[in-house]
Amino acid sequence: MSITKLELKNFTVFADAKFEFCPGINVLIGENASGKSHVLKLLYASRTVLEYPIPADLKPSVAFVAHALCTFYGTRTVNLAAFWSHEHQSESSAVDVLHADAERQRFSLVNPTIKPVQLPVSFVRDQRQTHTVRNSVFVPPRDVLAMYPGFTAAYENRELSFDTTYYDICRQLSASRLRGKAAKAIAHLLAPLEQVLGGDVTLKGDGFYLQGPHGEVAAPFLAEGWRKLGTLAYLIANGSLTTKSILFIDEPEASLNPTLIIKMVEILRQLAHAGVQIFLASHDYLLVHRLSQAAEHGLTPTVPLRFFALHRPDPGAPVQVESADTLAQIEHNAILREFARYYDDEQRYTLAELAKPASQPSPPKKTAKKSTQKKAVKKTAKKATKR
Predict the structure, then answer these.
(1) Which of 6, 7, 70, 272 is the most exposed place for a label (fewest CB within 10 A)?
(2) Do the strands 92-99 and 104-110 form a parallel or antiparallel pair, or are they unpaired?
(3) Does some domain include residue 223?
């Protein structure tokens, strides 16, 4: 069941915002503090309140607020006014989420109380441990594969100051890998990741390992970018991330080099093609433009794609939402704007250097180093042919 619409009234940085999502990949771009993670977490909370049983003494709208508080704050003491649009001094706040099966979730806050609210660990633990059908996965920007050992118990016993997206994903990672027919059914989703990793990710005891042709490597010894890919691989391998899942992933490019970012793009497109609805927030030029390039040129597999550019028309103004199916149609692209500024500056610096008098020394050119390298390569090649 996918999410189709979201409407926000005076919620955090939004005064009046509407999102219409596609069933494939939904990409949120924008500067820092433009509300990208707020949208991801709120949508994830709308799913968890459906997937965990609601206590009999809670109204659905109150349960939605409770799950949103968990997703944003974990078990820390907070104020309901934290959801308020502080910037706009409004008197009410409202959230409206619509799902593909026409199920609608709403909550509204009027005259927010100043009294702090604390959700006890027992609420989080009892909700998260009572499993019904789970088909939502939130992958936070920070690595969880290395922090996994003992995290769940420490969160439940000591009230760690992490939001529950970290607790939830550690709970999901605790499941064993699928076997038999179930494993064969997800093999096509898992294969591209294991090919990149050069092996399969396994859970042994209380820690994760990458099993490769040269033995096993413990998660803390893997590069953080590999751990992010390993997290996705294991969530697929144990059935947490399936063809009917909704994947929320905040900054999927974090800790990945450009080559692995391209691999991440391919993996996300394959997951969406298999039926996974994806919501991601990104600051990376390569990731978002590669996604757009595939849509612009109709590359296979064909995947529904929609971009949402979050921006402020003026400093201090509410965040507005611009949407389109490709980046070429987006006017407010903060990522592209900064790259264009870089190339403009590069051109300006070069022209300024060319305009200097011949007597005035210029800084060493990059091309000089390249030509020296080319000469060295040619000399080495000649020596090799003589031999």
Answers:
(1) 7
(2) antiparallel
(3) no
Residues 6 or more apart whose Cβ sits within 8 Å of residue 256: 225, 228, 229, 264
Token reading at 53: 């049983």
Helix (H) or strand (E) holding 216: strand 215-218
Residue range 320-355, pLDDT digits in tens:
999 999 999 999 998 888 888 888 999 999 999 899
pLDDT tens, position by position, 276-287 = 999 999 999 999
Torsion angle (degrees, nearest 10) of CA 372, 374, 379, 385? 170
Cβ–Cβ < 8 Å for 91, 48: no
User: Using H for helix, E for strand and C for coil, what is the string for 11-39?
Assistant: ECCEEEEEEECCCCEEEEEECCCCCHHHH
- Residue 372 covered by a domain: no
Return the structure tokens found at 64. Answer: 């939605």
* 215 part of a folded domain: no
Note the Cα 138 to chain centre separation in Å. Answer: 8
Cα–Cα dist 226/230, whole Å: 6
Q: What is the pTM of this model?
A: 0.86
Domain of residue 317, residue span:
3-177+241-355
Measured in residues, the chain has a length of: 387
Are 220 and 208 contacting, i.e. CB atoms less than 8 angstroms apart?
A: no
- Beta strands 78-79 and 25-30 are unpaired
